[in-house]
Amino acid sequence: MQIVAENLSHVYSPKSKFAVSALKNVSLTIDEGEFFGIIGHTGSGKSTFIQHLNGLIKADKGSKKLTVGEFDLLDKKCDFKKLRSKVGMVFQYPEYQLFADTVAEDVAFGLKNFERLSEEETAARVREAIETVGLSYEEVKEKSPFDLSGGQKRRVAIAGVIVTKPEILVLDEPVAGLDPKGKKEFFALLHALHGGFVKTVVIVSHDMDNVAEHCTKAAVFENGEVWKVAPPKELFKEAETLAEMGLDVPVTGYLAARLAANGVKIDTDFTERDFARKVLETYRRAEEGR
Amino acid sequence: MKDVAFGQYYPARSFVHRMDPRFKIVLSIAYIVAVFLVREFHFLGFAAAFAFIVIATAVSRVPFFKVLKSVKGILFFVIFSSVLQVLFNREGTVLAEWWVIVITDVGLLRAAFITLRIMLVVMGTAILTLTTTPVEIADGLESLLTPLKWIKFPVHEFALIMSIALRFIPTLMDETERIINAQKARGADFESGNLFKRIRALIPILIPLLVSSFRRADELGDAMDARCYSGAKGRTKYKKMRPTYRDFIALALMAGLIAGIVLLNGVLGVPV
After folding, report:
1. Number of structural domains, chain A?
2. Are A103 and A74 within one domain?
3. Looking at CA atoms only, how far is residue B41 from chain A in angstroms?
4. Looking at CA atoms only, how far is residue B186 from chain A in angstroms?
């Protein structure tokens, strides 16, 4: 499913003193298959934007177009419930939304809301979801979600979202608060999901290393507008402009800039592997030339 | 839920804003007493109280409509009670009669009287909450309740609990909104079904909210511990409350209002 937004606007508390224009004429297309990054500092409108994608926030009247696959979100008759089963949304610190007595029940919550399945089918889907996120179904199904460790809780919360097999998975700062190992495992999980029923991943992140490493394309939000949409390879060449907006570049970006200042130009896509290879190549060439 | 502005404090630097919160609390209570002192149907007393409100609002630099708006919350209650008065009061001269309903002049007067009384009380207390932050009110109450320490009432803790509760209302509102959105994204439906179903639908919101409140309470307790909080003993205040000339001017005005009302009550012995 392709996501298309044209001239999307949203104002919080309109007509009051506290009116905040969170999105101004945002036009953005996210193609199916993309691992799409959304970056921008706090208050740039990125969270508002992603909450439009499953109808949690409704676009203002002036907006021209907002479609997700065949769903027209500006249409009042849009089946938001069905949409939400297709667009899974993982909020920041998703472990705080756990509520049920057992892990299995919590994971089944979304599934039961969206689909009428027999008990066996539900259990099978729940098992599948829990195992997909790397937990042992037999071990955790009867446990209280509140007795798990932080990392496990987050996995259970994500199982509760992917149990409906969404085609689009939207995640808001999903690795915040995880340790380095947890982050690595989490992205491995995301890539594994991306190869399966999840066709498109949209991820909001402050961490430019993650964006450079994992995203195929990224949009930069600034003051409720889209400043630029480009693959990380192009985006992070503009380190200075990004810095002016209060944004970072990946470590590889800083290193490339430092090398460029010393007369060594490296054409990299800013992933660690590519950067290391290009630096090594340049080094070898210099060795040979000597 | 972002549209709900909690508390109605109107920030400004005015005569009333800079008054000692303790004085403001006591004067508000005195004002309520004054309004209730007005004898039945002595509307002139109400006029005096209203004049007091107008003056207080003017020197507080709060727009007058803000004070008027405070009445909105109790409008239903006011209308309800005055309708009851009109319909079921049987004293005085009968003006109209229909089936079991009898409308008398006293009934009408009493309805007007009660309506005005409630509105005046609410407007007066609105001035307090419009010009005083919740923290100031809590501090003021703490100081005013100090005598209760004699009967071992934990005044300081009481005030602390109050300010913490007030402080966390916006935080919890944000949290609630986040959880509602998260559960909605998982297909939760809060708008359809019968009453029983809707109450059940709240469980996925209430439990995470409760859990996170406990977590927050734990964290706050640890943070207070880490900063060596040990209760009221030996604790000093960052903002010392000190009465100034403003408080005494306000006090004099209030004394004038009460004296005026008492005088009016005496002079005009007969209902207007």
Report:
1. 2
2. yes
3. 40
4. 5
